[in-house]
Amino acid sequence: MTPNAPALNARTRRLLEAPIASTLLRLGAPNVAVMVAQACVGLIETYFIGRLGLDALSGVALVFPTVMLMQMMSGGAIGGGISSAIARALGAGRREDADSLVLHAVLVSVAFGLLFTLAAWLGGETLYRHMGGSGASLEVARTYSGWVFGGAVLVWLFNALASVVRGTGNMAVPAAVTCVGTLALIPASPLLIFGYGPVRGFGVAGGAIALLLYYLLGTLWLARYIAAGRSVVAPRLRGFRVRRALLADILRVGLAGAVSTVATNVAIAIATGLAGGFGVAAIAGYGTAARLEYLLVPLVFGLGGPLVAMVGTCIGAGRRERALHAAWIGSGLAILLTEAIGLLAAALPAAWIGLFSQDPAVIAAGSLYLRQVGPFYGFFGLGLVLYFASQGAGKLKWPVIGNLARLAIAGAGGWLGLRAGWGLAGVFAAQAAALVAYGLLNAASIAGGAWFGPVGWPVRPAALLRRLEARSA
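Structure for MATE family efflux transporter, as requested:
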């Protein structure tokens, strides 16, 4: 029992006292469901857009890394900063700060949403052209990008409000909102892409419109839930004032996470650009295969969301050893999940690529990626889940270093592979090496005590635990 226990909500107390593994699994189950559903949003759209032809599929593939950058920044980076700040405030018994953080989260999300809209409208076409877009595929990219990023604020608000709720340890409500929205998207997406009866189709723009409707309805639902006082936190507009300390509490973790997110997506964008030298089919094949890697992000976040809440609450309450144990248990679960998917994809790559295109060149390029990179997805899962745990701890220096190392290895290695004459195989081999470095760096840094002081190698667990006990004392 912690000194602050009398002031803690029952949900918060469970994060501090309940068995770690069963709590993570219990909280992670609905969160995995919500993240799978959210990932399916993009897959549903891609499935129907793929029926419009190769130019449509490759054009959307050009935009996809940037869309995922926005989704990962809003839900994982800044969203993780929001969840971490609220969890640490609740763990420390600072209920008033936790309530105020909700409106600060809304302000931050609106600002970032407008920034993404402006950046995409001004520089999107230039970016897509440099990634290998031309002709009809570039025109598709321009259209799709204009619509999606025109509604960027909706994406940011949805993920900010979902992160607020997750920060309290409630994973079920965001899960329900996302799953219901995904079910509604299944008929809405083809209706707006192809049209039916009196409803005319909008082509690739229809896919973007359906996506934005999903985020609009989800945002309204979450806003109503929080405003009605049904969450642990209860924002109050009367007397609200912007506090630098609370903004800093979100942004200190969120911006560091944003660096990691940018590095991840730039690595994908670089690989897309390198693949572009082999033609439209190579772009479409790699872009389609890489969607599976992006699918791993929400799957791991299914565990990462509860980890942010648990680690953050434990750190706020001074329970450092429990926070560390939670990180390693979550790591084991993430490795099992992502490695199983990677091995299956490597064994049956055409089964995945064939969902989106039957073009032999597209299938060949995508299959080559999955066979080379899929077996190393476990390292990606390890690095990513420890990134989320580090968000909860408020210590993201080493996850940022790990992601920058991944970017350097993927970019420089891919370029060297091409120079050596290894073709697409060289580009994808560099991607695999980058994932290994990412996972091992994150694990080694946390094992070396990065959350609690300077990293010390070689790792001596007994010495680390003594250091924790000394600091707690």
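The chain has one domain: 18-472.
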